[in-house]
Amino acid sequence: MSIKIKYLNKISGKSSANLVLFSNDKFNTSGLKKYLSNSEFSYINDLLKTIDLKKNLFVFELNSKKKIVLISIKNNLKTSDSESLGAEFFGRINYGKNSEYFIISDSIVGKYDNFLGHFLHGLKLKSYEFKKYKTKKETRLISINVLGNKNKPSHQNQLKFKALEEGTFYARDLVSEPGNILHPDEYAKRLNSLKKDGLKVNIYDEKKLKKLGMHALLGVGMGSVRGSYLVTMEWNGAKNNSKPLAFVGKGVTFDTGGYSLKPARFMEDMTYDMAGSAAVVGLMKNLALRKAKVNAVGVVGLVENMVSGIAQRPGDIVKSYSGKTIEVLNTDAEGRLVLADAITFTEKKFKPKFMVDLATLTGAIIVSLGSEYAGLFSNDDKLSNQIINAGEKVEEKLWRMPLHKNYDKLMNSKNADMQNINYVGGAGSTTAAQFLQRFILNKTPWAHLDIAGMAFSKYGGALNSGGATGFGVRLLNQLIEEYYE
Questions:
Q1: pTM of this prediction?
Q2: What is the pLDDT of residues 292-337, one digit of tens each?
Q3: 336 is catalytic
Q4: 393 shares its domain with 260
Q5: Active-site entry in 290, 336, 438, 474
Q6: Among this protein's residues, is 92 annotated catalytic?
Q7: Together in a domain, 124 and 185
Q8: Which of 140, 162, 190, 262 is catalytic?
Q9: pLDDT at residue 2 is higher than 90
Q10: Of 462, 446, 471, nearest to 390 (Cα)?
Q11: Into how many domains does the chain fold?
């Protein structure tokens, strides 16, 4: 299926066209009469008297060939509301064969800053599908014609929306790929291809990682026939040599749990255990496409956690890139081992203004927050508040969770500097974040986003139709755009 959007001055064949009209929150339709015949106008007004007006969108089927979509716009409209309306509109028209709609851009729409841009952005985000491996290809086309240039998004805004959509879709594509296709070797190749978008990409393979001393990351991938990698992506869009903003992602392309084997039920979902890295990749692609005026670096650790005769064992002790030693008591607590080396490397090499890491790190965060909020852990109040505010504006919500030195004792090991799980029990997400914090050596402002409940949706959300969500791309883009450009 494809979405085609055009901007026109008039409708050809108005009598049979599907129309999208807007009213105020009271469903005052007086301004719409000029777009409808007298009988159509009377019919719609009669129906409005009999239905629940708490909803924002109604579809009136006038006959087998013509529909009127009526959308109310509330007074205190936020950009996320505009996007949600666009997504809801797509949900109501996403059936049947090819279809064409004419959006009437009238005075009500013009009262809100860039309403149509956000409305269409939400529509396109909702339209995402991953049907790459379907042998029967569907070729559906939905044509959206916007009438009136007065409220047309500026060329610059159109480019921004397109870049954000491409970055989000790229992240969703990566998460949606099966583990036999997107293993670490293939993943690294795809990231190398992002050079064409203007990113500087460096790939550290196993030989280079061993030389650097990244044995925490390498230990996770020991059981796989595939390689393990650390990949850096740099975007230098600022005119000065300011410190970059750093984003770090967990890229476990498939997670069996290793010898601490996961239950068979739902193990197939572990293809999305690399969603943190996908969000970082999608963000960096977006920044490059929209030529963001900021210096940023994305760092992802790519591994496959498998079981084999040479896989890491419970009880093994590894030395991290930081020099600190880790007793691996549970091989299914592997994401924090990958991030430990990636975080220290990022801080040491790039000396960033701040670091944000994203990971599908713990099931405990789903127990705490479900699929409504991602968990936020941070050593910096300012950065935390900025991320939370950015998340509220794009409906990618976060809830700040505690960090405290008293949790450290739960991760102390008798045999090494620390252990990778808390054997006492409880506070699973916090102790994981507390573990990661130990690998920040120079007090760099840092935030950890545990997105385990947000990266994949079986039932769909406001701006996605089920499957990979791309959570984090729009959130971090908003953070950058609002506070750092």
A1: 0.96
A2: 999 999 999 999 999 999 999 999 999 999 999 999 999 999 999 9
A3: yes
A4: yes
A5: 336
A6: no
A7: no
A8: 262
A9: no
A10: 471
A11: 2
